[in-house]
Amino acid sequence: GGPASIARFRGALVGAVLGDCVGGEFEGAEEVPMDRVLQHLNGLQDEDRGEGILQYSDDTAMTRCVVQSLLTRAGFDEQDMAYSFAKEYSLSPGRGYGSGVIQVLKKLRVPKLNDVFQPARAQFNGRGSFGNGGAMRAAPFALAFRDHGDVKRYARLGAMLTHSCSLGYNGAVLQALAVHLSLQGALDRPHKFINRLIMEMEEVESEEAARQDARLLKESEFPFCDRLHRVKDLMERNQVSIEEVISELGNGIAALHSVPTAIFCVLHCLEVREGLPENYRGMERTMAYSLVLGGDTDTIACMGGAIAGAHYGVDAVPNAWGRCCEGADDADRSAEHLHKLYPRLPPEG
Ligand code: F2R
Ligand code: MG
Ligand code: MG
């Protein structure tokens, strides 16, 4: 489909659920051999799989809250979104949430809390979380706002409900921007795509809070820009090993060690790659490659799945894979609702 087509919207949300569900199998694994990944993915084609459907985790649970809040409030409403996260957690606490964020979700359960950003600010002795929990649920912001300034603004605020460290919420900004650009067809020119992300993040990371957090955590001055430059260097190489990707970009639970990695997965898998099945198309390659990196596989595949889905569109998701994933149908319907809302918002200016 063309820029911001319904197929791209559906691809973004279904791709995110798919990544979360298929990636859950390997979350936390240090080494994931490709044959195990392929066995897992090929098993999804099996008509009479004994294992039933793959359950979604916190990544999708929180993304669903973001979508529902944006739709019912017709925009960003921090009180509503915060309460929705808290309610979802209290109804279904066993979805594999991060151990820190649970404290925030319990505090947010109080209806009409005066300052819904306060519990997040109290995390980790006032330093705030730098986990990827804000980024993993950021895709819907790109589907709800057309203007890239709004995408950045609301992805940041949505993440700050649980992640007050700039290395957490700026990961959400980067992820939402990547989905936004992909929706517009920007992945047709991969180098332009990565340069645009670097340019945007230079502005984002110039803020004083970001500079201060980077200093405090002994990161480079512009941590996300630095990682995106590494993505660019890796893109220019003919051969890149899994070990090099992990050592350059990371595969961990911190937003800094997973959002640029997810972006690299998508970029790397735009082309046929040695070691990935020849019959796999871009979407399937992105999924397989995200899993073989190990570490935070559900979240890296979820974020990569959203960016890739916005590029390839929903038709690139194998039907059998979608059928195996809890919440894929709901994501598809939600994407249609968000798409209906999208043209009514002011155009990019
Ligand atoms: N939590 C997991 N996976 C492991 C546990 C699953 C469990 N085995 C199960 O089966 O139930 N996955 C999910 O968590 C990630 C998103 O986490 P989020 O929302 O960012 O949580 P949190 O707690 O804020 O941060 C995660 C951890 O990062 C470290 N951390 C963050 N900020 C820190 C700081 N300022 N100082 C020190 N450490 C900090 C802590 O270890 C946090 O617990 C996704 O992967 C999702 O899938
Ligand atoms: Mg998870
Ligand atoms: Mg995870």
Automatic annotation (TrEMBL):
Entry-linked InterPro entries: ADP-ribosylglycohydrolase, Ribosyl_crysJ1, Ribosyl_crysJ1_sf
Subcellular localization, as worded in the UniProt entry: Chromosome; Cytoplasm; Mitochondrion matrix; Nucleus
Top EC category: hydrolase
Primary localization: nucleus
Record SUPFAM superfamilies: ADP-ribosylglycohydrolase
Co-factor binding details: Binds 2 magnesium ions per subunit.
Binding site for Mg(2+): S57, D58, D59, D296, D298, T299
UniProt-listed Gene3D superfamilies: ADP-ribosylation/Crystallin J1 (1.10.4080.10)
Protein's UniProt keywords contain DNA repair: yes
Chain coiled-coil ranges: none
Keywords (A to Z) from UniProt: Chromosome, Cytoplasm, DNA damage, DNA repair, Hydrolase, Magnesium, Metal-binding, Mitochondrion, Nucleus
Catalytic activity: alpha-NAD(+) + H2O = ADP-D-ribose + nicotinamide + H(+)
A matching Pfam family: ADP_ribosyl_GH
EC number annotated for this UniProt entry: 3.2.1.143
GO cellular component: chromosome; mitochondrial matrix; nucleus
Cofactor(s) this protein cannot do without: Mg(2+)
GO molecular function terms noted in the UniProt entry: metal ion binding; poly(ADP-ribose) glycohydrolase activity
RNA-binding among keywords: no
Single biological process term from Gene Ontology: DNA repair
Subunit structure: Monomer.
Recorded family membership: Belongs to the ADP-ribosylglycohydrolase family.
Protein name (Swiss-Prot/TrEMBL): ADP-ribosylhydrolase ARH3
Species lineage: Eukaryota, Metazoa, Chordata, Craniata, Vertebrata
Encoding gene (name): Y1724
